[in-house]
Amino acid sequence: MALFLLQRLAVLAATLVVASLVVFAVMEILPGDAAETMLGPTATPEAVAALSHKLGLDLPLSVRYARWIAGLARGDLGVSAAYGSAIAPLIGASLLVSLPLAAMAMALAAAIALAAGVYAADRRGRAGDAAVMGLTQIGLAVPNFWLAILMVIVFAVTLRLVPAGGFPGWGDPARAVAALILPAIALGVAQAAILTRVTRSALLEALNEDYMRTARAKGLSRRAALWRHALPNALVPVLTIMGLQFANLIAGAIVVENVFVLPGLGRLMLQSISNRDTLVVEDGVMLIAVLVIGLNFLVDVACAAIDPRLRQRAA
After folding, report:
1. Other beta carbons less than 10 A from residue 75's beta carbon
2. Cα distance between residue 212 and residue 194, in whole Å
3. Separation CA 49–CA 31 (nearest Å)
4. Which residue of 154, 162, 191, 285 has the fewest C-beta atoms within 10 A of its own C-beta?
5. Same domain, 38 and 170
6. Signal peptide location in the record (predicted)?
């Protein structure tokens, strides 16, 4: 296990370096001048040059990259040119919305997917299996923004059960959770559909393995063998997909956050791109990359803990 962890840590470090280079390079090749965009088309060349110097945009690329990485390493994310304040509190406040939202959506998707996937696999080829697969097709086909708008109309405007939008902060946890319920459902439905299909496929593959026939030969019922032996072995691909989905929920919630007027990370990134606030975008995208890579590392460790064969391959 130690060798496995060392290998995964080395891959994690190398991936982070490559990700930082890609993020920095993409922001540099974007058309237009950031200082000119911030000041507007009526700005004088002197004002543009002064802002470029203040932001460090006139420095060589290598120096700017080194300064950015050094700042990230010591936790100094810099100052937003558009907001005029430190970037760390801006991103921290947005994460207090995006992370709980993603966690709620992921918990909802996992609960539905594990129950529905096991149910469908246990009834392969029967009406229950067909019904679950049909519902997953609908879940995949419905756009999350359309579902979000529909739920606002039904549950917020018509029934007045939950707020239509906005976020009251975590000073009142009950109101904060209520504000995230509809966005979490809108985000979680498609993920639940994907995860259900993955769970069903992994379980069907596990049910055909030799150890399942051995378990049945020892007297275990089909359902008991499914829960005790098939499901633990089927969790490796399921956990892998869940890790990718959670990262996608954090990074891909821009539309839903705008529908519900949530001050999350996606909305902050969209506004910063519009304002050409380069440093905020770089820090935000790099944070998302760290979350994605870190989650993949944790998923790899969890899969190795479940399946010893993965650890043996690293030896």
Report:
1. 7
2. 25
3. 17
4. 154
5. no
6. none
The tokens for 37 are 């965009």
Give pTM, 2 decimals.
Answer: 0.81
Cite the beta strand spans of the chain per DSSP E: none
State pLDDT tens for residues 156-208: 888 888 888 888 889 889 899 989 999 999 999 999 999 999 999 988 888 88
Residue 18 lies in a domain: no
- CB distance 120 to 200 below 8 Å: yes
Angle value at C-alpha 169, between 168 and 174, nearest 5 degrees:
75
What confidence tens digit (pLDDT) does each residue in 70-107 have? 888 888 888 887 777 888 899 999 999 989 999 999 99
Say whether 253 sits in a helix, a strand or coil: coil
CA distance 156 to 163: 6
Q: CB neighbours (10 Å) of residue 152? A: 20
Domain of 155: which CATH number? 1.10.3720.10
Domain co-membership, 43 together with 122: no
Q: Residue 68 belongs to what domain range?
A: 33-76
Long-range contacts of 107-112 (CB under 8 A, 24+ apart): 108/184, 108/185, 108/188, 108/192, 109/188, 109/189, 109/191, 109/192, 109/195, 109/245, 110/192, 110/195, 110/242, 112/188, 112/192, 112/195, 112/196
Q: 79 pairs with which residues across the strands?
A: 86
Residue 10, domain member (yes or no): no
Q: Are 159 and 249 in the same domain?
A: yes
Please return the burial class of 10, using the count of CB atoms within 10 Å of its CB with bins 0-12, 13-18 and 19+: exposed
Classify residue 79 by its DSSP letter. B
